[in-house]
Each structure stands twice: as structure tokens, then as C-alpha cells.
């Protein structure tokens, strides 16, 4: 089966051990939320999986093959990375930006029907079709974030790696984007998403990977991993876990001192 | 017909017209009916104006394309092909040949200039190493360009005769006066190869719009891109300086002129920039010949005189947009 796996990933950056023997495997069709406090190594793990960092030890396996055995273009066709705070250096229009997502697939000259279909579908999935002709500078923060997600989806990756995709979104668009990630997983791709809001993780994730200081603290179903004890150990906050009348679980956190 | 195609066709038509103008215009105006082999004015067309016109078009295209590629690569609208030192290196080579008085021999000056460009390119490649980093690239270019500039200043101040000094200073201003077919045959293959290499960067430059690391995650090989840019720009700029001296501002201005028509996507800017560069230089070179000055106005000076006001307009427009 095609699996994305990290095996004993260890990475030092600037003399600090950012990832420490991280082993995890991700299955297609599932959403995995990567959680942990700031500096736990979440973004670095994503970068490593996407091939932007070469680990000091351990390796990334893509469909059973070591990552190094795949060319950069092959890897880019399989893994789409949505970075945090993405820059857009030229003021291009939305449709042009989303079409950049086809870069790993496209033939040298001209775009194919497949390219166009993928771009249209990605724009529909993220609800940005109505902005197609607008320049990027004329978008709000939330609109911009959705367009950037559409860019990654246009590449139809088997693995979607999203680093805090909800950061600039209002509550409604946060829920829409979470729904969109779920749809991507339902379509057969594996989704690995860094989240800060534990409630979002509960809502969207099939599985949770909890990182602390470069190490995996726990991995499993959200309900099993996110216990008040673990939340206190990793985030240093106390938490109350409850359920709304219609069955949605939620977590309310507060400072330890208030306990 | 797409917008880009239409712009490119208009520019091509403009180039054809400007080439006609360039063949006709000059201290001696040569009307079309003199364009026959028997006419006494025909040698002026065949041996002087034709190579000069072709050189203006080739050099303009190469500089325009290099400018567009550099701006796309550095993601900076103020980037210029002169930025990474190859033009200063080529100029230094040419100045050395003038310093030692070699310039009288045909093709020795361009050969020195090309050597200077080649050495600068090699040092640049060594300095940036295998990093593929854009910041290292820019800094290395600035260092090389200032080192070559100071050596050129040294050559001027130590020049053996006032004649050599004035020759160097005049040459540095760039011009297409008295160029021959030899210059065309020397520059053409180098410029063509450089342009082909730069044409291959288009889609990768587009991907770079999203920043270096995102582009890498999309499968961009930063080393390969940097190699294409360094060699492509070095060939274009080196061969241009070797045949025409330093003609600034073309690479800087031209991409700005075409963006309002074709949009900001870096790959869409490349071809129209090459065409507009050719057009700009053809027109400017015809004008400097036609101006009723005692000695011909140097093309390099004419371009810098255009460059200042152009940037003022750019600044005013930017200020209005920010307000």
C-alpha cells in the first residue's frame, strides 16, 4: 500500500535538535493533525516530509521507496506543501496563481485539458472561482489563504501537507477549509495538517500526532491522545473536555494557575 | 488571439519599421530608392548600417530578456542585468585592451571583453557554489561588480597617455558606431545561446513567485535555475558589452514597459521584453545618429538620460498607488 512514512527522522538546525528520532506513518484517505506547542517541530516535520530539509539521520519513505530515490519533480507530484505565511512576489491574478500548482505536472509548453480541469476543480473546492480574474493584492487575508490552498490542490497531490492553513480565516471559512481537507482525504489523498486549535483537530482528524520538543509524545485517535493530562504536559495548560448537546466534542483550555 | 500574442506581433511590426528607420537614418539620409547594389550609397547600407542595425536589435533583445529574467529570478523589479558583475567584468576586459593600446587590432577588444565576462562568470559561479541561494548570488554579484568597477577606475587613472584615458572613458559610455559584420558574427552565436538558455527559465521563474522554499517543494531545482540564469545572462551581457560597450537601463526599463500589457507573470514578460528591448535600442540608436550634434551622441549616454526620468515616473506612479 502507498504510505508516507518517517523513520527515525532526526534533524539539527542551528545547533538545536529540532526533530529527535521521529517515526510515524501516514495512510492515504486519512487526515492526520500534527499538534504541539510552538517550537515542537511541527513545521519542520512537514518540511522534512516534503523534501525541503535533508534529515541528519533517518529517512522519509514515499510509497515504500526512500525519498532520495525519487526525483524532485516526482516527489512534487506526489506531495503538495502549503507553507505557513506564503509569499506572493508578483501581483498576478488568482487563476494564474492557482495554475502554478500544475508546475510539477505540466509539459514544457502549454497546458493540457487535464491541467485546466484540475485548476477549475481546485478553485471550486476552495470557493475562490468568483475571484479568478482578481489580482492577488485585491484579496482579503482569508481569501488569499483559500487561493493558496487552491494552488496546492491544483497539483492533485497524493499527500497534502498543510501548515496552519486556518491561521487567517474567520470561523465560517475555518470550518469550510476543514471540510475541504476532509473532502481531499475522502478523495483518497492523505492529509497531514499542522493545527493550533485542538477543537479543529478533534473535528477534522482521524488521527493525531502530538509533538513536544522534537519528539512524538503520542499518536492515535484524537479522543485517546488529547487527554487533560497530555494537554497539561505538552501545552502547559489545564483543559476541560466536554460534548455539545448535538454530540460535538470540545476542549476549553485555561492557565494552570487558575486550577 | 491572446493578449500576449497580440503584443508580440505589434512589437515585431515595430521592430521591422524601426529597422527600416535605422537603415535610412543618419548623418547621411539614404532613401529607399538608393538600396540597390549599383548605387554609390549602397556600401553605407551594406557595410555600415546593416550590421549596426542588426547589432542594435540583437543587443537590445538580449539586454531586455536578461533584465526580465533577472527581475523574475530576484523577484525584484529594480534588478538589472548589470547587477551581478558580468558587465563590469566585460568592461574591465575591454578597458585593459584599451589601456595597452590593443584596440587598434580588429576583434582584440571584444575578445578581451568576453574573457573578462567569462572570468567574472566563473568567479561568480565559484562564489555561489552549490548553495543555489539567491541572497548569496546577489551579494557575490555586487562584490564582483564593485571590484571590477574599481579596477576600471584604476586603469583610467593610471592610463599611459591622455589619449588612452579618453578612449577608455568614451568606450565605457557604450555605442554602436562603426561596427562591422565581424562584430555581428562574433556576437550572434553567443547572444542566441544566452537567449535560448534564458527562455528555458520561464516556468520556473513563475514557480519562484511563491518564494524559494515553496518553489522547491513544487519540484524546482534551484541549482539548475541558477546555472541557467548565470550562464544565460553572462552570455547575453558579456557579448553585448563586448560589441557595444555598457548600455545601461535597457534591461531595467523594458520589463516595466511591457508588464502593463502582458501582466506580471515572469514568463509572460520574457519574450515581449526581448522584443521591446530590440525596438527601444533600434529607435534610440537611430535617434542618436539623426541628432544634429557635432560628434555623435553616445548611445549609452542617451539611454541613461532616458533612464532617470523613467524612474521618476515609476516612483510617482508607485507613490500614487500607495496613497
TrEMBL record, chain A:
<dbReference type="InterPro" id="IPR017871">
    <property type="entry name" value="ABC_transporter-like_CS"/>
</dbReference>
<dbReference type="InterPro" id="IPR003439">
    <property type="entry name" value="ABC_transporter-like_ATP-bd"/>
</dbReference>
<dbReference type="InterPro" id="IPR003593">
    <property type="entry name" value="AAA+_ATPase"/>
</dbReference>
<keyword id="KW-0813">Transport</keyword>
<dbReference type="InterPro" id="IPR027417">
    <property type="entry name" value="P-loop_NTPase"/>
</dbReference>
<keyword id="KW-0067">ATP-binding</keyword>
<keyword id="KW-0547">Nucleotide-binding</keyword>
<comment type="function">
    <text>Part of the ABC transporter complex HmuTUV involved in hemin import. Responsible for energy coupling to the transport system.</text>
</comment>
<feature type="domain" description="ABC transporter">
    <location>
        <begin position="4"/>
        <end position="238"/>
    </location>
</feature>
<keyword id="KW-1278">Translocase</keyword>
<dbReference type="Pfam" id="PF00005">
    <property type="entry name" value="ABC_tran"/>
</dbReference>
<protein>
    <recommendedName>
        <fullName>ABC transporter domain-containing protein</fullName>
    </recommendedName>
</protein>
Automatic annotation (TrEMBL), chain B:
<dbReference type="InterPro" id="IPR000522">
    <property type="entry name" value="ABC_transptr_permease_BtuC"/>
</dbReference>
<keyword id="KW-1003">Cell membrane</keyword>
<feature type="transmembrane region" description="Helical">
    <location>
        <begin position="50"/>
        <end position="70"/>
    </location>
</feature>
<keyword id="KW-1133">Transmembrane helix</keyword>
<feature type="transmembrane region" description="Helical">
    <location>
        <begin position="108"/>
        <end position="127"/>
    </location>
</feature>
<feature type="transmembrane region" description="Helical">
    <location>
        <begin position="270"/>
        <end position="291"/>
    </location>
</feature>
<feature type="transmembrane region" description="Helical">
    <location>
        <begin position="134"/>
        <end position="155"/>
    </location>
</feature>
<feature type="transmembrane region" description="Helical">
    <location>
        <begin position="82"/>
        <end position="102"/>
    </location>
</feature>
<feature type="transmembrane region" description="Helical">
    <location>
        <begin position="297"/>
        <end position="316"/>
    </location>
</feature>
<keyword id="KW-0472">Membrane</keyword>
<keyword id="KW-0813">Transport</keyword>
<dbReference type="Pfam" id="PF01032">
    <property type="entry name" value="FecCD"/>
</dbReference>
<feature type="transmembrane region" description="Helical">
    <location>
        <begin position="7"/>
        <end position="30"/>
    </location>
</feature>
<protein>
    <submittedName>
        <fullName>ABC transporter permease</fullName>
    </submittedName>
</protein>
<comment type="similarity">
    <text>Belongs to the binding-protein-dependent transport system permease family. FecCD subfamily.</text>
</comment>
<feature type="transmembrane region" description="Helical">
    <location>
        <begin position="225"/>
        <end position="258"/>
    </location>
</feature>
<keyword id="KW-0812">Transmembrane</keyword>
<dbReference type="InterPro" id="IPR037294">
    <property type="entry name" value="ABC_BtuC-like"/>
</dbReference>
